[in-house]
Write a structure and sequence with these properties.
Layout lengths: L1 H19 L5 E5 L4 E9 L3 E6 L8 E4 L3 E5 L5 E3 L16 E6 L7 E11 L2 E10 L3 E2 L2 E2 L3 E12 L4 E2 L4 E2 L5 E18 L8 E21 L3 E12 L13 E2 L7 E12 L1
Antiparallel strand pairs: 1-2, 1-5, 2-3, 3-4, 5-6, 7-8, 7-19, 8-9, 9-12, 10-11, 12-15, 13-14, 15-16, 16-17, 17-19, 18-19
Amino acid sequence: MKAKKYITLVLFVISNLLIAQPKFADKLIKRDGTNINCKIREIGDDEIKYSEEGIQSDILIGIDKNKVASIIFADGHEIKMEDSRSNSEDYAKQRKNAVKVNVLLPVSGAFEICYERSVVPGRSFNSSVGLIHAGKDQGGTMYASGAFVKAGYKFIRNPDFYLKGMRYAHILKGGYINPELAFSTFSFDAENSSDQNAPYQRESVAKLAVLLNIGKQVVFDNRFLFDWFIGAGYVLGGTEETYRYFAFIAGGDTGSSFVMTGGVRLGLLF
């Protein structure tokens, strides 16, 4: 008889504990740090549905999965949500490397080849090597010879995505900003006004510039790309030797540290 009383008492305590458990004990944590106490009803491919205290239980509220950092259920189990725009599995079949050629630069007497690699969706590393072979300055023939190198980190603007699932159309596609370092070194024939018998004298140049480029890159069929950009920045040591440095050009009067750059590139993905 006493055993039955004990069993009844235990069952009564357990039932009260279960009844006392909050109905909206799940916790939805958004990426901005906001916490929502709710009851999770459904986790879909693109949306999470939940009911919230104070609202009819048959009315479900939906939220984009990309806005949710994690879900903590009433029993303590936690599910971390991954932003579909940065989910590497979604981009596994996309080519992450590109080789490009600046198609306008040969007009000024140089050839440039560029390499770009996606680091994570929306971010990529790019570098360039240029060969300076000849060119004409404002004062006459430069007969320049030398080289330049560039290196930068590209931040790709994320509205270039498919609407469903908020995914990038391609990890290398979109408008971007690109902080960049450029170093140019070459020798050229400079005017020599002090000696009429030798109107030109050979001079050497070595300049480092800090640039900020903006541009847009378009990808076709995951194989080809078209990239255009313009930029501006400052060169260390002034620009007194010539207005053209092939990797960039002087943007102001002689001696100014302000420089500009730009170009159009065509490339292949691999």
